[in-house]
Amino acid sequence: MALDSNSADLTNASLGSSFTDVDVVVVGAGFAGMYMLHRLRSLGYTAQVFESGTGVGGTWYWNRYPGARCDVESLEYSYSFDEKLEQEWEWTERYSGQPEILAYANHVADRFELHKDIQFETRVEAAKFDEEEKLWRITTSDERVTTCRFFVMATGCLSSAAMPEIEGIASFNGSLIHTGRWPKEGVDLKGKRVAIIGTGSSGVQAIPVIAKECEQLTVFQRTPQYTIPARNEPLTPERQSDVKSRYRNFREANFSMPQALGSETPKFNDSVYDVSDEERSARFEEAWNRGGTLFMASFNDVLVDETANTYAQDFVRAKISEIVEDPEVAQLLTPEHIIGCKRLVIDTDYFETFNRSNVDLVDVSSDPIVRINETGLATKSSQYDFDVLIFATGFDAMTGSILKVDISGRDGLRIQDKWAAGPRTYLGLTIPGFPNMFTISGPGSPSVLTNMIISIEQHVEWISDCIVSLDDRGAETIEAQVEAENSWVDHVNSKADRTLFPSCNSWYLGANVPGKTRVFMPLLGFPGYVRRCEQVVENDYEGFVIK
Ligand code: FAD
Ligand code: NAP
Question: Of all protein residues, whose CA lies closest to atom 46 belonging to ligand 2?
């Protein structure tokens, strides 16, 4: 049963012994771990959070690269669980920048006094389920073991930075930085020759800002990117107070959206084939001018019908050739794949940046990178020299941070073996063979296809309600059944297979990490997912064994 929250209040300073008991160990102090801690404590449970960074914020703590900002509007990309918090925090931009989002995370941590139960600069290295004692033993990088009844992996979907294996990386004499591990003290790029590898969301955000700061920027692009203007702008006090005056309704409306966002953005339920060529172009033009990822919601079939998709592709391709002055550069920047099957990017002046005289584009699909050397890098045909090399090469998404921990469940089953052929979960929350362990926004949950803070809140609340329910019935363990997992995995796949998502090499499929099993990891559709989670509870935790 839960200990009294005051008497069992563990602070970093009190972690004096090598054996500590808490109700719940939470790994990670991003938005998921922070809310998990707050929620558990308010229910009277003791919790210890371990975080490898020196502060809270997760994604927003690590990704300090120039230009980093959210692609879900700030009034939506924020916690909804506390009305006072919602009212008191003032956002300054439509899409806030990383410093402001990190300041918000710190504000939340201060407001709810989270720091005292978070041990920073501590990696969770292993977790082992003790079947006899019905508890988890968590081993951390400070060589301590913490025991707990429940174990929550709040380790993030996009927290394991992926570095490509390019020969000679260690030989480079300049600075080498990954966008997802940007130095806290910042990097002075003034007067420097900078190179960047990668043109996903991180690269597209960073490139225009870095280009203005450095002397010379060389962009190494493997796959061109569809990107839509963000149309970021200052948030007017009128808009902010309007939303705040009706925040509950605003949130409720967003909860009912497929991605838990954008209820006030026009969406259309007709097909590209239902309208004339002029109407179709006008619709795409409006969405382009409005900005944001809901460009894809201009018609109901852009993400499900390959031919319908080509209309959206052609529209963006035409924009690229209008914006980029040099036709050869424009051609290199023009994608050919399905639009939206890699995560759609939103940008500020991305294509315009290639009109600058200090920016060069190198197509490494036709002229691959061969090695990194002391002064720069060599492609098959040329040598490029620079002072700073930035990797905007993404993440081992959704499973990377989980599989880096040596987790063993019942009968010594290791998560690495269980997921050898790809991740399998029930509801994206639990895994058969791993009793009393939960994943927040795990594979098989809507997570990265939604406004993630809202998905995180739903997971945290489901997990904490589940723990309370176990205690109410005097049970010790909950474990998902394999049959439930099998049908859940089928459900996730069948939803994805009805769309164009599986049609290109995206990180949604694990295709960006050499050797990773190709399987579509997130689940499409937030409201249906929430309803299913509720039904599971209404049916007395259908698909689980409770003992
Ligand atoms: P994270 O924020 O990733 O936090 C996980 C934490 O766990 C990290 O601090 C990490 O250090 C820690 N950790 C991991 N493993 C261990 C371990 N073994 N031991 C100890 N600590 C560990 N989503 C949106 O919905 N909208 C956006 O606009 C948006 N923009 C994004 C921009 C960027 C640059 C990136 C990378 C992602 C973005 N995302 C966005 C997704 C974003 O990751 C989530 O919105 C959200 O911040 C995730 O919170 P989290 O707490 O689940 O994970
Ligand atoms: P990403 O989308 O995976 O992009 C990585 C880029 O690096 C791709 O262009 C990829 O090319 C390239 N790359 C990888 N290895 C390479 C190699 N060996 N040689 C050359 N190029 C290589 O990663 P990301 O940009 O960090 O974004 C990941 C996710 O984080 C996003 O999709 C989004 O969910 C989130 N994010 C959001 C925002 C935001 O706008 N709020 C900002 C940043 C990140 P290929 O395409 O050819 O593989």
Answer: 223
Residue 413 burial (CB < 10 Å; 0-12/13-18/19+)?
A: middle
* CA 359 and chain centroid, separation: 29
Stretch 372-400: mean pLDDT, rounded? Answer: 98
Confidence of residue 267 (pLDDT cuts 50, 70, 90): confident
CA of 313 to the centre of ligand 2 (A): 19
**Coil, helix or strand for 361?**
strand
Q: Measuring CA to CA, which residue among 98, 27, 23 is closest to residue 63?
A: 98
pLDDT digits (tens, 9 = 90+) for 79-126: 999 999 999 999 999 999 999 999 999 999 999 999 999 999 999 999
- Protein residues with CB under 6 Å of any ligand 1 atom: 27-33, 50-53, 58-59, 61, 63, 68, 70-72, 77, 123-124, 154-159, 202, 401, 405, 440-441, 451-452, 456
pLDDT > 90: what percent of the chain?
A: 96
Q: Domain boundaries in the chain? A: 8-160+397-546, 169-391
Nearest CA to ligand 1 atom 45: 452
Domain 8-160+397-546 = CATH 3.40.30.10: no
Q: Helix or strand or coil: residue 247?
A: helix
Question: How far is 353 from 214, CA to CA, in rounded Å?
Answer: 13
Q: What is the pLDDT of residues 277-319, one digit of tens each?
A: 999 999 999 999 999 999 999 999 999 999 999 999 999 999 9
The residue-averaged pLDDT of 360-382 equals 98
100 by DSSP, 3-state: which? helix
The SS3 call for residue 124 is: strand
Look up tokens 């914006």; give the residue: 323
Q: Name which of 180, 181, 182, 212 is nearest 194 in CA terms.
A: 212
Please state, in angstroms and rounded to a whole number, the distance separating the CA atoms of residues 444 and 507. 14
